[in-house]
Amino acid sequence: MASDVLVLVEHIDSELTDTSYELVGKAKDLAGGWNGEAVALALGSVDTSELAADRVLKMAHPSLDNYTPEAWLEALHAVVQERDPKLVLIANSTVGMDLGAGLSGRWGKPIAAYASAITGEDQDVVVTSQVFGGKLLAEAVIDGGQGVCTVIAGSFPGEAGKGGGATVEDLTPPAALGESRTSFVTTIEPEGGDVDITESPLLVSIGRGIESEDNIELAQEFADAIGAAVSASRPITDAGWLPKTRQVGKSGMKVKPKAYLTFGISGAPEHLEGMRDSDLIVACNIDENAPIFDIAHFGTTTDLFDLLPALTEKVK
Amino acid sequence: MADMIVLLRQVPDLVEELELNDDSTDVEREFMKFVLSEWDDYALEEALLVKEASQGSVTVVALDDPDVDQVLYTALAKGADKAVKLTGSEEGWIDSHQRARTIASWMRNQTYDLVLTGVQSVEDIDGQVGMLLAQELQHPHVSVVVSVETKNGSARVTQEFGGGRFSELDVQLPAVLGIQQSRQAPRYAPISRVRQAQQAGGLEEVPTEVSGGSGLTVRRLYAPESTDHAEMLEGSADEVADKIIELLRSRGLIK
Amino acid sequence: MSVFAAGPGPIDEIQTREVFANFGFFELALFYLLTAVAIGLFAYGAFRRIRKYARGRRAGRLTMPFRRTVVRTAEIGANATIGHRYPMVGVAHFLIFWGFIVLFIGTVILTIDHDIVRIAFGEEASFFKGTFYIVYSVILDTWGVAFLAGLAYMGLRRGLSRPRNLDYKRAEEPPEGYSRAQFVRGDWLFLGLLAFIAVTGYLEEGARIVASDFPDFEIWSPVGWLVGRGFEAIGVDAAGPGETWRHVLWWVHSLAALGFVAYIPFSKAMHMLTDFGNLLFFDEGSSRRLSPPVEAPDHAGYQSLEDFTWKELLDLDACTKCGRCHVVCPANAAGAPLSPRDLILDLRQWADQSTSTVSILDREHRVEPTGPLTVNGDGTKLAGDVIKQSTLWSCTTCMACVEACPVGIEHVPTIIQLRRSLVDEGSMEQSLVDALSNIASQGNSFGKSSRMRARWTKSLDFTIPDARKEPVKYLWFVGDFASFDERLQEQSRTLARLLHRSGVSFGILYEGEWNAGNDVRRVGEEGLFELLVEHNREALEAARFEEIFTTDPHSLNTLKNEYPDFGASYPVKHYTELLRDLIKSGEIKVRPLGRKVTYHDPCYLARYNNITRAPRLILEAMACHVKEMPRNKQGTFCCGAGGGRIWMDDSGLVERPSENRIREAMELGVDYFVVSCPKDLTMYSDAAKTTGNEDKLTVIDVVGLVAEAMDAPEPAMASEAGDVG
Known about the structure:
- Chain B is an alpha/beta fold.
- Chain B has helices spanning 38-54, 68-78, 96-107, 129-137, 191-200, 237-250; strands at residues 2-8, 10-12, 34-36, 56-63, 82-87, 114-118, 141-151, 154-160, 166-172, 175-179, 203-207, 216-222, 231-232.
- Chain B has a single domain (2-207), classed as Rossmann fold, CATH 3.40.50.
- The relative contact order of chain B is 0.18.
- The longest helix of chain C has 35 residues, at 87-121.
- β12 of chain A pairs antiparallel with β9 (166-172) of chain B.
């Protein structure tokens, strides 16, 4: 077993995701402790010049250009077999959901999923994972000190992974890539034309507590009064009350506004992942035990149906 | 037309307060209330929708989790054709690796086109069962799936990425899918139908042996410290509104 | 016969009229033939209807024979239900009703004399003469006038004042349009036919009197006599065309009457028969104590005509389209797609269509075969196509329709049978699915852990006894909302504190209590209801207590009226009844508050269970001046939350029923809107806010006032406070 930490980086439109930098930063930190290298694996076409990994492995193949779980797992597994890293880090994204457990099964090494912290204790790898919907944290040791870890976005600073200077190595794709049973059909891009919530400095965000589609009006009025955009948690966009592009969270947008005001959002981990970096978070939820209050700077248990009209009134 | 197998699993009901066991390495399961993992419920719904659209069959299978009979009968009441309970698992938590291996050993004797299960569960710290199972059986797999359609030996699935992006993939069958969301909200099974199914029996019990393991050792479980709990704004709606506006004003965010 | 001696002529033994004067054989034969045809058509029509009812399931309505026959018949004879809240209509209908019966009996008597007595016993046996004839003439002539007066009032009301209940605008309007013009024509045909028969009767009588040259004894037919004088004035007299007119008018009148007989079972006129039956077999308890679902292996709710009971099928034919249910329905008032009248009429048209029943001018017309015109088969559904899902889900089960119906139609149980069909196939909105799933797993609709049910008691400075562990006098069945809704928990604590302070022995079931299931049953989820009953029954059996009291009127209803069917029979009262008793016995001492209040009767307390006095007595004991809203007691207006509506989306409504109600209360100039149901407290607090009356009208629970009254300062003359009736 080598002492390297391998990071599978992800990209959208040939640009690396923020989480890729976060993982590379962490990999450097961990690999340093084990006297190994932080190695980034980039599949398909992507600009890796900003990555601060010790080494960047690049693999190009027609079946890697558009993501399919099968081809990427084949490639990742081939590299892992070849290099035998101590730890493989993948974001807990759609890709990580596919490949984390997939690699664990294929490789025969353990996986610790939903990680929010990783430490090296001598040769041991100790992972802290979010379980039970974020209600508990589990501290687990990877037996044998070698395995896979899927990491929740935003767990580590991204800066440490930036700076460039990596040795780039081009890899030969494994032959099995040509035999994939999964084929890419098309990508569905976010619907344009609606409000871009990632650009708005002020967000009024609503959740299940708004109760019905008609009540969204209350949030919209307040948002209009302060020049904010209206965003939402998953239940609202799933119900079709707002377009999918307004969804904040793991499967929605990551936002970082100057102020994020929530109404009726309880704060599932998936939602928190998309907004935790906001400069100011003010939460309104009638349940005083709602997890949103653990991350908000200010909170209130006032009924949103009283608070929203009062806010609108006062701003006007 | 596709013969589908849907994997169901019981998880602790998060509505309840979670209590830890004596050495804080697991939640106290003895008096805990268990419910069907919500993503598995989506998987069942999606399978039923696929069956409605293009015939086929739905078999639900679960390990001998607490109160699992009820869940299997509910699935039958909703329209599943067959329910299988894999018995022989020990008391306590069975990790994803063990689940995948146990289910795979049963599945090797089954014929099927498609396996659906929830994309994740609230306690699969050692990885998602569906993807592990796919490796056991060497099937292609896709997770975070929000829509499934079958035709001529393949499935067209929609996989969800963040930020409103999706991609469509064609997967040759047999394949394993991790369902994030069904196209429709899971249907309601009237209690009388569930009871009818219960009275009719028909739960197939298959003895199995649980083997393997996750290779993870949980040292401790603990509640996240909420040291940064929000500063609570008290008062009437009017007073709270004033305070919030002051917060925004003092930061120059509104006039 | 001294009474008649003073009359204008001597009483002669042979004084009578001739029935078939100047009739030839063929004419006579034609009349009897036509009579036979008319009676034949009537019998056929009636047979078809009866055969349809006979297809229905058992209804269990042969109970209480004395009450049904004697008492109900008396009520029907008095037209009591018709006069309820509509006194003028009651009087007018009374005149038509008895006018028709008297005239009909008159015809029967004549037939008996003419076609039975005279033929069997010879001409000399006839009794239709002399004194009998005179009495007969007076009675029929006067009731004829009454009959016409009643018809005139109804015609003017329908034609000129056009009350909203008689406009046939649908609550749920099909996109492709519809026409109910036939209904209007049918109404006028019915009224017109009755009036025409009466008028031609008088004309014929007048012509007869003219033709026989005003014999003295005919003065006892005063209207006919006057009509005769009128004929005479225009030159129709005995010497001239009098006899011809009489002959022609005789035929016109007879044909109209015979036509009417044939028309009865095919038209609005059938209500004369169906409503008698419907009122005899009416069960006022059918909404408060629902019947179990159909026992069929493949379905639970109503799917076809065979699923209906014969009483429910009779209900459909009983409707006279009076629209009283339409105007009292809170769903309809709120702009929801439900009108109980439309529901019954749609089902009737669909049933008639499916049984190929002929009906005259009783059809709604549509371009497409939708709604009531839905053709059976092809996967069309009774609940969903004939009656829209949205219509069925709009019902609050407030029972205002059943209470308002003058002819004993039971809308609510039928709606619930149809809902059972929707639940059986899982067709319901997500919020309702969530609520039911929560109830199934945790016993409450809030999705909270069942172990948290008694958490509201934590902040009390005493412990409420667990009735399963120690015996108590009263078992408090708290209910979901009072246990889990944060706004209502304080209310529950207030009640707990004042009972504790007054030394009342009471306990609760803690996590043993689950949702009582009243609204679950009314949503149509019978299986879950049974599950809840079993659960609660076990908990109740494990507890030791004398009586149950509930916070929630809905829980009260099912515990009191439905649980006994499942082997859980206990005395159940509402907390307002308990408080009344405690104040009366002096266990609770209240001081005068002297507030100006109005009191809102919850449907499930007032209309379902006739509990209207207790809360008012409490208010009086606190010297509160109760000003009644126009819709009060059994005529109360629903808050909109019942029948599971509280778990459904109400944002599509034009005006929420609760807002409508607050506006009603605002007219009174009172300061407090007093409620006695936890759902009401939230519904009306919200409505007071949304209508902008939050500062003018305080919504408060009876408990809140009692708590205040217990702590109120001792008045200078504290004598009457605390003294309840």
